[in-house]
Amino acid sequence: MTIVRPTEAQLDYQRRRSFGVFAHFGINTFNGMEWSDGTLSPSTFNPTELDCRQWVDVYKRSGASHVILTAKHHDGFCLWPTATTDYSVASSPWKNGAGDVVGELAAACREAGLGLGLYCSPWDRHQASWKHDHAAYDALYQAQLTELLTNYGELVEVWFDGAGSAEHPYDWDGIMATVRRYQPDAMIFNMGTPTIRWVGNEDGLASDPCWYAVTNTGDFRLDDNRTGRKNGKAYMPPECDVPIRANWFWQDDDVHTLKSLNHLQAIWYRSIGLGANLLLNVPPDNRGLIDSQDAGRLLELGDSMRERLANPSTARLAQRGTTITATFDSDITFDHLVLREDLSEGQRIGPHIIRANSDAIVTNVQTVGSQRVHAFPPVTARSITVEIDDPTGRLAGLEAYCTGVTAIPSLEIQLHHNEGKIVPQEPAGTAS
Ligand code: FUL
To answer: How far is 382 from 379, CA to CA, in rounded Å?
Structure first.
């Protein structure tokens, strides 16, 4: 079986950027819409108090390592003063047309040490050429990307959204060459030749197993998106995107859909806790600020998870074949374990069983990956064993925690904007 290996940039991303924030912001924010058709007037874009430092302050304090901004959504309205179209902030009353949201966010991120990624929708409903003159649109899109990739410093991720694009074949070779040329280390989300993939739902949920390799690439409707496969052909870890309310753009009438702390924690364990990356959308409102209720909830999530994982007991590891013995300095009581696989030779560990004092405390679980978080009723032991399925698998680390929380929280029923109920589907095998 061939096991594909990650690049250094992918490994770094998995290690350091497991939690990012998505910021949907644009002309929709001022018109109560999620998708608009490219005809809304730029005169409606007018944030009265826009302050990217306030966004970055909230994001940073939550523990997020990066933010991804919708520089252009499907409506084609550009948040930077692009030379490619008038449909941008330059035609808006905001700062009399002299503003640049991408520039302000990039500066705030640089100042605070937060990574920046940009979303630039290939589907553009404002440009007639998108439908009628593919070559002209492809040139315009390349020019827009070039502006974004060259004027705003280092980007950690470029987000390509597949929505709406079925009818337009893009010049992916050209687009990828542009990204590689100007931002060689940036992760590429989901289209072209991606380095990270969509997890297959917008509920923020990965599955167990969470394999990083997939076989079908370059198509965002992958059948092995959700679980991946051990012997897949390309290394492409999943990113789990989910909005903090029902909608991606800020709306003035959906605060009742703000996800509870319990539900966000449930998402955390089923994304970051399964070794996937989480991208939680916390968008600016029509003042150009993060709403205090959204900010409060995001900070509660960050604080609570940080508190749970604040005091690790680190184990010494010894491996014989498929048995790994993890020994602590003394007897300790713990209810959480975090396992980290050494991924430098590719992801190898599948089903594993953890025993303490010869009782099985974790069973029926699959992959480990960049980090796997298990929760269970308290156990006291000086050493534990992890029985893995593949003798070539290696753990890079194992830590135990006493959190007072003895199970992974359950998902809650969510409300749609229009009050319809969404029952989140529990991904297979995630309860440990
Ligand atoms: C989808 C888009 O259509 C939504 O508006 C949103 O941007 C989401 C993150 O991706 O494909």
So the answer is: 10
Count CA atoms within 13 Å of residue 360 on its CB side: 8
Question: Measured from the CA of 243, which atom of ligand 1 is nearest?
Answer: 9
Which residue ranges make up each domain of the chain? 8-308, 313-401
Q: What does the alpha-carbon distance between residue 185 and residue 178 come to, in Å, rounded to a whole number? A: 12
Q: Which residue's alpha carbon is at the smallest distance from atom 4 of ligand 1?
A: 248
What distance in Å separates the CA atoms of residue 290 and residue 22, rounded to the nearest whole number? 12
CATH code, residues 8-308: 3.20.20.80
| C-alpha 161 to ligand 1 mean position (Å) | 7
The string of pLDDT tens digits covering residues 309-321 is 999 999 999 999 9
What mean pLDDT value characterizes the chain?
95
Q: Is 98 exposed, middle or buried (0-12, 13-18, 19+ CB in 10 A)?
A: exposed
CA of 163 to the centre of ligand 1 (A): 7
Ligand 1 centre to CA of 223 (Å) is 19
Protein residue with its CA nearest to atom 3 in ligand 1: 163
pLDDT digits (tens, 9 = 90+) for 161-186: 988 888 889 999 999 999 999 999 99
Ligand 1 pocket residues where CB is under 6 Å:
34-35, 161, 163, 241, 248
Fold of 313-401: Jelly Rolls (2.60.120)
Distances (CA, A) of 314 to 311, 358, 386, 432: 9, 20, 15, 21
Please give the distance, rounded to the nearest whole angstrom, from the Cα atom of residue 72 to the centre of ligand 1.
11
